[in-house]
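Hi everyone,

Forwarding the result from last night's run.
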Amino acid sequence: MVISPLASAVALLLGMCAVIVWRVREAKTAVTLKKILIPPMGMATGFCMFVAPPFRIPLEWAAIAFLVGATALAWPLVATTKLELRGNDVMMKRSRAFMVVILVLAAIRFAAHGYFDKIMTVEQTGGLFFILAFGMISVWRAKLLWDYKRVSAGIADREPEAALDEA
């Protein structure tokens, strides 16, 4: 199966717009454990693609893709995502740098896709990029979970104070 560069670029732009819209909407609502944990758990179901032989890649490639995603690509997301306490809610702090990171990651993905499509099948490329993204999302969400627990501990520390203020 061959995908034209134009179709790939359009899909990339649509995906990027969806991420930006999602990110802006997410920043307006409180962060919860569900919102942190459900996306990687839902994404994990994508590993079922490797049941089909066309998607299979060598284990070494999968390990390298996961490690690149978990290290080189995750750190910009980790560095640009901050949680803060607003009232009794944990909120994500808006960051212009996050949008730049998303744009750069999309550009890297687009450029790398062109290269990898020449040396492996489209299905294998999809599987490889899925593992890369899963590594990136896993580390990012683990850091968010860590930060969420740290910031939400501030809510527990303040609750007795709030009860005294109300009395």
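Residues 117 and 125 are 6 Å apart (CA to CA).

Cheers,
N.
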